[in-house]
Specification:
This protein has 95 residues and is mainly α. It is built from three helices and two strands; from the N terminus they run H-H-H-E-E. Helix 1 crosses helix 2.
């Protein structure tokens, strides 16, 4: 797959990125380099390779799953700039 100048301009427009006309050939070339790299990655044989979340094997710390009645609203709402009737008060944004 090859990206031309017109396609690069369309991608820039969709991404809301202003690109000068004289920079479009370089952008198209950069997109082509990225696509070439992605094609190279698809050639790698990953059969039998376990998916991993980190390069070092580690177990994520977990908290106990305990059912509670919820937090105490008083301390939580004390940090709010405006609280009314036990809830956070926010400005109206929809008419």
């Amino acid at each position: 797959m090859s990206i031309d100048k017109d396609t690069a301009a369309r991608v820039a427009k969709l991404a809301r990125i202003r690109v000068e006309e004289d920079a479009l050939p370089d952008l198209a070339n950069e997109f082509n380099n990225i696509l070439t790299f992605i094609e190279q990655l698809s050639e790698v044989d990953v059969d039998g390779v376990e998916p991993m979340t980190s390069v070092t094997p580690m177990a994520l710390p977990r908290r106990a799953d305990v059912v509670t009645e919820g937090g105490d609203a008083g301390p939580v709402l004390s940090n709010a700039p405006d609280a009314r009737e036990g809830f956070f008060a926010v400005p109206k944004v929809v008419e």
